[in-house]
Amino acid sequence: MAMVKTKSSSRRSFLTKIWIGLGFAALLQFLAGAAFFLVSGKKRTDENRPQHIEAGTIADFMPGSVTLIAKGHLYLSRLDDGSFLAISRKCTHLGCAVPWIDERKQFECPCHASVFDITGNVIKAPAPRALDLYPISFERNMVMIDISRPIKRSTFTAEQPAYPQELG
Amino acid sequence: MSKNFLLHFRPRRVPAEGLRFTLTWGLGGMAALMVVLQLATGLLLGFFYEPLPVRAYESVQHIQSTIFLGRLVRNMHHWTGHALIIVVFLHLLRVFINGAFYPPRRRNWLVGLGLAVLILTANFSGYLLPWDQLSYWAVTIATSMLAYIPGIGISLLETMRGGNEVGTATLQLFYFVHTSLVPAALLLFMAYHFWFVRKAGGVLVPDTKHTTDGVKTKSVPVAELLIREMAFAAIVTCFLLLFSMVVDAPLGNMANSEVTPASVKAPWYFLGAQELLLHIHPFVAVCVLPLSISLFLVLLPFGKSKTGKPGRLITTIFIGGTLFLMGLTVTGILFRGPGMQWVWPW
Q1: How do the domains of chain A map onto residue ranges?
Q2: Closest of A90, A33, A85, A47 to residue B137, by C-alpha
Q3: pLDDT digits (tens, 9 = 90+) for B273-318
Q4: What is the set of domains in chain B, with CATH numbers?
Q5: Mutate which of A112, A115, A152 to test chain B, going by most B C-beta atoms within 10 A?
Q6: Which residue of chain A has the CA closest to B332?
Q7: Would you list which residues of chain A are within 8 Å, Cβ to Cβ, of chain B?
Q8: Could you give the angle at the alpha carbon of B271 between the alpha carbons of A73 and A123, nearest 5°?
């Protein structure tokens, strides 16, 4: 009798285990499905396609000047040697919009008082690195900026500025 | 029926010593009451709020200026939300000091930590909804802190914002989290939390083991407790109501992604982290420190204690850490002016 009893209870516990196992399998399936659902919703098709905007003609920008390109959320900075840098407006510290202060010829962040020079280089911390850049190309006399992907950099280097063709 | 529910939700008799106000300071009950108030005011606001960048700000203005009692309802939702963070923090502190996190209350401590995270999430997701300059840039700064987490930081940031910058997708996500995800999770966790309190035999009455040798603790009907709770709830509700009648919730200019206002800070409960970010390596400020604090809080109830209260070392670490973070937060709130320059608040 005792044997029968243990047998039936072990059969019951076996069935219970199967149910629990099936429950876990169902839960895992749901979680996996939910994960794929969420991740595929996040992807965007135009993510890696370049997106060019026209900033203006080369002659519009004086050497040593910085111009806000509002539709790209960036600045076009023309250095004294005539080369161009497309500088992101987003502070590298915590993402505030950095205004260009023309009297002092520098970018000054209103949030935590980081300061950047005309090339986007950090003059004063807490910003950890120079302002992001966007790739520049020239089509005839037009300055074109690819705003799809900002390029991170730690400091300004000589190969970063883009030179218009006639200057070589 | 409601009387039945209120009386039978808990055991028929409770220990008399558990009624003492200074045992719990009514903090857990106060937090529960405030969540109920938030649900009530939030449900009302939800009828008129429109979660789109072009409409959100206007709809909040509409609630404030043309809807009957609209300003009061929004004020209450705003101030109760801030007060809730403080009350939950004090509740956590009280439970720690009483040692009410050791078995059999270990699991409830963990559930309580989950509730604290939910309350923070509720508050932070609600921060963006008015879509004024303050909320837009505070959320920009607070989410930017995520980017300092190595490896996953950037993708975490983009997931949270639904893109590169705070915009339509961010508002939609925050609105959903604020009005669906958090309330649903909060109710489930709260039910679990209360059930565990009952399962552990009510609130922890410290020192009973030492004082009453063989003497049975006196107990009183639960109605005694209930009437005290009702009175306290009425007082707290009155205070919140009066405060909201006198002090308006802030609403600045509409959000503008072109211009960052001069004095902009993360929400006050993240100002400790923001302050740290100015002084130490970002990896430590936004990654190592929050992780070790979480780990400490989670592992806390697994330690051993002879007296039923946390030992001296644990207490020193806990209180020291709390004071340190509070100091940083107060510094961030009071002593930082435009451009994070030092200022005197008076």
Answers
A1: 1-43, 52-167
A2: A90
A3: 888 888 888 788 888 888 999 999 999 999 887 777 888 889 999 9
A4: 15-199+219-256 (1.20.810.10), 272-346 (no CATH)
A5: A112
A6: A112
A7: 42, 70, 73, 90, 93-99, 109-113, 126, 128
A8: 50
